[in-house]
Amino acid sequence: METEFADFYAAHFPSLCKQLYAYTGDRGEAQELVQEAFSRGWAHWPKIRGYDDPAAWVRTVAWRLAVSRWRRARRAFAFLAGQREEPAVPPPDPAHVALVAALATLPPNHRRAIVLHYLADVPVAEIAASERVADGTVKSWLHRGRTALAVQLGERTAR
Amino acid sequence: MSEYLRDLRAAADEPYRGPGPAAARARAATRRRRRRNAVVVAAVLVVATVVVGFWPERPARLKPATPTRTSSAVVPEPRFPPTGSATPGDRDVPDDWRIDWANSIMNLPTNDGCPHQRVRFVDGKATFAPWQYSIGEPVYGDFTGDGRDDAVVVVECHGDADVGGPESRQVVAAFTSNERGGPNPLEALYSGQEYVRPVVTIADEVITLELRYEGGPWRIEEYRWNGQQMNRISVTQTPRPR
C-alpha cells in the first residue's frame, strides 16, 4: 500500500503543486498545501484508493485548505515559526513567475476559474457547480481573466 | 494567453517536487497520534469525573454548614403529617463534613425507590418532572467503625399518576465522608413507598430506623455495617405511644 501511495504521490504532486502555486502565488505555500492534502489522503488511503480519480480528492482538499481562512492564519503562524517543510528544489522558470504574478492581480474567483480550467482540466460545469454559479458566469470569469492576463503579460513583456 | 498556461502545465516537475510520501505519511501519523492522545485525555477526564462523583462545580457548592443540632431526619413535609422526631444525643456537625446538604449535587446510592441517582438540591428540593425530591437533615454518627462520623440522610421522592402515583417513596441513604467533606454514597439501607418519613438515629455503630405510623404500631429496624454491606439485624414493632 505504501508503494502504491508513493507512486500516486509522485504522479500527482507536481501538477497539483503547479495549480496551487498559480492560485496562491507562493510556491512554498503551494507545496505545503499539497503536502497537507496528501497526508490527509494517506489517512484515508484505504478508501480513496478505490475512487475513480483519487487525485481529484486530494485536489479538492488542497483547494479547500487554500481558501480556508483558519488554515491561512495557521500557515502564517507556522511560517513565522519557521516550521514549514520546504524541500530543496530549483527555482521556477522566470516566465512562470511572471505568469503567476499576473494571475495574482486577478480577483480570486477569476483566478480560481482560470487555474482549475486550464491547469487542472476541470470542466466549466464542474467549476460552476463548486462555485455555485451559472455556467455562463464561469465562462465570463474565464474570458475576463484571460483578457486581464493578456494585458498584464503584454505590459511585462513590453518592459 | 492559453499557451502561457499550457507552458506552466508542461513545466518540468523538479521545481514543484514535494517533501515526499514518507513525510506525508509521518505527518498523518503525528496527527493520528495527537488525536488519539486527545481522546485518551478526554476519556480520562470523563472517568475521573465519574469516579469522583461530582462535576467540577461541586466544590463551589460545598458550603460550610452552620453548626446545627442533628436531632432527627425529619423535615417539614407539607404533603404528609409530621412524623415526630427521634431523641438522639446532642451533636454538632462533625469536622469531617462540610457540605450544605440542602444545596448540594449528589449521587444517591443505588435504590429501588427513587429513579434519579444524581440529584441537585436547591433549598432541600429538586425537580425532575414529574418527579419531586426533598432531602432531610442528615444524622451523623460512626457506623463503619473507623472512628470518623458517617452520615445517614432520608430522601423523599414522588411522581404522578404516570409514574406509579403521587405517593411518597423514602430512601434512607448512608454515606461516608470524602476528603473534601462531601458524601461518598455507600448504600441505600432502606427504600420503599411510605407515607411517613423514617426517623433515623445512630448509636453504637447501629443505625435505627423508626417508621412511626399514625394509625398503628411503629416499625423499628436496625442495621449494622459489616465492612462490605448493610445488614438488617432486627425488625420489631412497638405500640404507638399515647
Structural features, described:
The complex is a heterodimer of chains A (about 160) and B (about 240). With about 160 residues, chain A is mostly helical. Helix content of chain A is about 80%, strand content about 0%. Chain A has helices spanning about 1-25, 25-45, 45-50, 55-65, 70-80, 95-105, 110-120, 125-130, 135-159. The longest helix of chain A has 24 residues, at about 135-160. The N and C termini of chain A lie far apart (about 50 Å). The mean pLDDT of chain A is about 85. Chain B is built from 3 helices and 12 strands, in the order αααββββββββββββ. Chain B has helices at about 1-10, 20-50, 60; strands at about 105, 120, 125-130, 130-135, 140, 150-160, 170-175, 185-195, 200-205, 205-210, 220-225, 230-240. In chain B, strands 3, 4, 5, 6, 7 and 8 form a 6-stranded antiparallel sheet that branches. In chain B, a hairpin with a 5-residue loop joins strand 7 and strand 8 (about 185-195). The longest helix of chain B has about 30 residues, at about 20-50. The radius of gyration of chain B is 29 Å and the shape is elongated. Classes of the chains: A mainly alpha (about 160), B alpha+beta (about 240). The interface between A and B is medium-sized, with 43 and 26 residues.
Keywords:
heterodimer, A: 159 residues, mainly alpha, Arc Repressor Mutant, subunit A, 2 domains, 0% strand, globular, B: 242 residues, alpha+beta, six-stranded antiparallel beta sheet, four-stranded antiparallel beta sheet, 31% strand, elongated
